[in-house]
C-alpha cells in the first residue's frame, strides 16, 4: 500500500506500536508456556526429556521458517505476512485448546503437542521479520536503534505478561483456557494490523549504495557474524526462560509464585535495558561494542552461577537475574545492527537470518539442558551457558573495523 507518508511522519509511532503489540502477542505464548513448565510436567505427565522437547518446539518452528518469512516479507510486504502469521498462530493455539490438553484422565502425546507448538512457532515466526521490516522502513538511522529496541522490548514485556498470565490460567482453569487465551489474543491483534498498519514503499536502489549493500545478505559473512553472535547470546536468555522454574523449584525449593515474580522482573528489566542500550547506541554509534560488553557480563555471570549453584538461594537468584538480564539486553541493538548492515531493502532477509540462528538455539537449549543434567549437574548447565555467551566477543571484536551501512527509505 503506497501512501504519502514518510519516515519523518508522526504515523511512524503508530507503526511502532503495532509492531510492539504483535511481538507481545507472540512472546506471551513463547515465554508463558515454558514458565508453566512445572505445571505442564505434572498435568501432562511428561518426563524431563519430553518436557524439554515440548518447551523447545516453538523455537524450532521459528528457526526452520524464519528465513522463508524474511524473503516473503521483502516480496509481499509487511502487512500481508503479519496478518497471515497472527491468524495462523491463533488457529493453531485453538486446535491445541480443543484437542491436545489433559482432560478426563486423557494425556496428549508429547510428540503431538510438540509438533503443534512447532507449527505455532513456524507461523508466528513471520511476526519478527514483518514487524521488524515495518519499523526499519518507517524510521531513519538516527532513530532505528531506539525504535527497534522498543520493538524488541515487546518480547520481554510479553514474556513478563506471559510469565504471570499463562501459569495462573493453566493452574486455575487448565491448559485449555490458557491456549484459548493465546488464540483470542492473536486474532484481536491481527484485526488491529488489518486496520492500522500502513506500508512505506522501499525503492530497489538507494543513493550512495555500495556494491555490498545491493548484494544478498545470505552471501555476506559480515551479516552472518552478527547472526551468530545473536545465536550464542541466546544461551543465557533461553536457559533462564525455559528451565529457571525447574532449577529454582528442584534445587532451591522455591514456590511457583516466587519463581513467576523472579521471571517477571528479569523480563521487565531486560525490556528496560533494551530501550536504554538502543538510545545510547543511537547516540554513540557503538552497537557492536555494547554487544561485546553484554557478552562479557553474561559470560562471567553464567560461569559464576555454575560454580555456586549449590550455595545460598539469594546469591543464586541474584546471579540468575544478572544472567537473564544480559541475555535479554542485546536484542534491540543486535537486530538493528544486522538489518542496518544488510540494508533496509534486505531487512526482512537479515532479520530472518537472525531469527533463524536465535530460534535454532531456542530449540536446542531445552533439549540440551536435560542432556547436560544427565552427564553433569546444574553446575555444568550454567557453566556451558556462560562459556557460550563469551563466544560473541570475538565475533564482535573482529567486526569493529567494518563500516556500517545506513541505507534507508529516506535520509532526508
From TrEMBL:
Keyword Membrane: yes
Domain Major facilitator superfamily (MFS) profile: 15-404
Pfam families assigned: MFS_1
InterPro entries in the cross-refs: MFS (IPR011701), MFS-Transporter (IPR052952), MFS_dom (IPR020846), MFS_trans_sf (IPR036259)
Presence of the UniProt keyword Lipid metabolism in the record: no
Residues passing through the membrane, by range: 12-39, 51-73, 80-101, 107-127, 154-173, 179-198, 226-248, 254-277, 289-308, 314-334, 346-369, 381-400
Subcellular location: Cell membrane
Main location: membrane
Gene3D superfamilies: MFS general substrate transporter like domains
Membrane-related topology note: Multi-pass membrane protein
Superkingdom, natural source: Bacteria
Keywords from the named record: Membrane, Transmembrane, Transmembrane helix, Transport
PROSITE patterns: MFS
UniProt-recorded name of the protein: MFS transporter
Species classification: Bacteria, Bacillati, Bacillota, Bacilli, Bacillales
Amino acid at each position: 500500500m503506497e501512501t504519502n507518508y514518510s519516515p519523518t511522519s508522526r504515523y511512524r509511532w503508530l507503526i511502532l506500536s503495532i509492531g510492539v503489540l504483535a511481538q507481545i502477542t507472540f512472546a506471551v505464548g513463547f515465554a508463558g508456556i515454558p514458565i508453566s513448565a512445572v505445571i505442564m510436567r505434572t498435568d501432562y505427565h511428561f518426563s524431563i526429556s519430553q518436557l524439554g522437547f515440548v518447551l523447545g518446539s516453538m523455537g524450532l518452528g521459528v528457526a526452520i521458517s524464519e528465513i522463508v518469512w524474511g524473503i516473503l516479507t521483502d516480496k509481499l510486504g509487511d502487512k500481508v505476512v503479519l496478518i497471515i502469521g497472527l491468524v495462523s498462530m491463533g488457529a493453531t493455539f485453538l486446535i491445541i485448546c480443543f484437542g491436545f490438553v489433559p482432560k478426563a484422565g486423557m494425556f496428549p502425546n508429547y510428540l503431538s503437542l510438540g509438533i503443534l507448538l512447532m507449527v505455532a512457532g513456524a507461523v508466528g515466526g513471520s511476526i519478527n521479520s514483518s514487524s521488524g521490516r515495518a519499523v526499519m522502513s518507517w524510521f531513519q538511522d538516527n532513530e532505528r536503534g531506539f525504535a527497534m529496541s522498543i520493538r524488541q522490548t515487546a518480547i520481554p514485556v510479553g514474556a513478563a505478561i506471559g510469565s504471570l498470565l499463562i501459569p495462573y490460567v493453566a493452574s486455575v482453569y487448565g491448559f485449555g483456557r490458557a491456549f484459548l487465551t493465546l488464540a483470542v489474543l492473536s486474532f484481536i491483534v491481527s484485526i488491529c494490523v488489518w486496520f492500522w498498519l500502513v506500508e512505506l514503499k522501499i525503492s530497489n536502489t538507494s543513493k550512495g549504495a555500495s556494491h555490498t549493500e545491493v548484494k544478498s545478505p545470505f552471501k555476506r559473512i559480515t551479516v552472518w557474524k552478527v547472526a551468530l553472535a545473536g545465536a550464542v547470546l541466546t544461551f543465557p536468555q533461553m536457559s533462564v526462560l525455559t528451565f529457571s522454574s525447574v532449577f529454582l523449584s528442584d534445587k532451591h525449593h522455591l514456590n511457583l509464585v516466587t519463581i513467576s515474580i523472579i521471571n517477571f522482573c528479569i523480563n521487565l528489566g531486560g525490556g528496560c535495558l533494551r530501550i536504554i542500550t538502543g538510545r545510547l547506541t543511537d547516540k554513540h554509534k557503538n552497537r557492536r561494542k555494547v554487544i561485546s560488553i553484554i557478552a562479557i557480563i553474561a559470560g562471567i555471570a553464567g560461569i559464576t552461577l555454575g560454580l555456586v549453584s549449590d550455595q545460598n538461594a539469594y546469591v543464586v537468584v541474584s546471579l540468575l537475574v544478572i544472567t537473564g538480564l544480559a541475555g535479554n539486553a542485546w536484542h534491540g541493538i543486535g537486530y538493528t545492527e544486522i538489518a542496518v548492515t544488510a540494508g533496509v531493502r534486505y531487512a526482512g532477509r537479515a532479520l530472518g537470518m537472525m531469527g533463524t540462528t536465535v530460534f535454532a538455539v531456542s530449540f536446542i537449549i531445552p533439549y540440551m539442558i536435560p542432556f547436560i543434567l544427565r552427564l553433569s549437574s546444574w553446575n555444568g548447565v550454567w557453566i556451558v551457558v556462560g562459556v557460550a555467551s563469551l563466544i560473541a566477543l570475538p565475533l564482535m571484536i573482529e567486526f569493529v573495523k567494518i563500516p556500517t551501512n545506513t541505507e534507508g527509505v529516506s535520509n532526508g
